[in-house]
Each structure stands twice: as structure tokens, then as C-alpha cells.
Amino acid sequence: MDEYKLTMHDERDTIALAQNIESEKFPNMVICLYGDLGSGKTVFTKGFAGAMGIDEITSPTFTIIKEYTGELPLYHMDVYRLEKDIESTGLLDYFDKDGVVIIEWADLIKDYLPEERLDIFFKIMEEEKRVMKFVPHGQKYEELCEDALWSRFF
After folding, report:
1. Which of 9, 25, 52, 130 is most buried, by CB atoms within 10 Å?
2. What is the pTM of this model?
3. Where does the pLDDT of residue 2 fall: very low under 50, low under 70, confident under 90, or very high at 90 and above?
4. Per-residue pLDDT tens for 10-63?
């Protein structure tokens, strides 16, 4: 399995990268975001959503999930405060709703994530600088990384 690491120098870089990944979207796509508070997870989501024609993205921290209508449905999850049994929340049903699922704090539900997905790890290097590591799981996600990352950034 390939991994890709990219350095983002500011939020504009993160948004541009998210837009590149959005250009390769497909139904039932699952993107799992990992990283500390303030590392860029919501910025990435806003960039991805903006490319789908969705303008008003806010962190769903207190609602767990927000649904948006764009070119495909976008299901934005923030499972940081998830306290219930994950199976009883209905979150797992979203993986098969023909939309795009973006999960912040995905490490908290790692045992429930689909086998095929894209993991993105955010690491704060400096005030604006981030290193992002992309780990594709499954052929579709490997191809996505080749098309959206490798060909456009290397």
C-alpha cells in the first residue's frame, strides 16, 4: 500500500488539495480525517465541500453529523463527542447512501470504518504549515491518490 506525504504551507494549500481530491469523488466515498485540534481537518472539509458547490460548512461537533446537498450528498461527521454505542447511532448507514462521507476524529470509531477508504493524517509543523499523509485502502482510493495527488503535486 502506497502512502503519500505533502506539505501544506497555509490554508489555501489545504483547500486546493481538497478540491483536487473532490474532482475524483465517487458515490460511497469515505474520507477519514485524523489529527489534533486545529490541524486542518475542517479546513479540508470546507475546501472539498466548496468544490461540490456547498458553501456553508461548519463543524458538526455538537450534532455529530451534518448533511449537505451538492453534486453528490455530503455527510460531514465529527465523532469527537460520540458517547453512544456507534451501532445504535445510524452513522454506519451513511457509508452506503451514495454520497461522500467525511469523518473528523475517525480514530475514535476505527473498528467501524469500512475496509475501503482514504485515511488522511494531519500534523501541525508550524503555525500555518501542515504535513498531510494520505493512506489509501482499496483500489479506488489508490487510483484517487494517483490522480489527485501524484499527478498534480509531484
Report:
1. 130
2. 0.91
3. confident
4. 999 999 999 999 999 999 999 999 999 889 999 999 999 999 998 877 665 566
Question: CA 134, CA 141: separation in Å to the nearest integer?
Answer: 10
Positions of E strands within 14-153: 29-34, 65-68, 74-78, 100-104, 117-124, 130-137
Contacts of 71 (CB under 8 A, 6+ apart): 25, 52, 53
Grid coordinates standing for 106?
475517525
d(CA 149, CA 153): 6
Cα 31 to Cα 136: distance, rounded to the nearest angstrom: 9
- The answer to whether residues 81 and 52 touch, using CB atoms and an 8 Å cutoff, is no
Q: What is the dihedral of CA 5, 7, 8, 14, to 10 degrees?
A: -10
Q: Does residue 153 carry a pLDDT above 60?
A: no
CA distance 121 to 91: 21
Report yes or no: 17 and 44 within 8 Å, Cβ to Cβ: yes
Place of cell 489527485: 148
Contact status, residue 136 vs residue 145, Cβ threshold 8 Å:
yes
Give Dmax over CA atoms of the chain in angstroms. 43
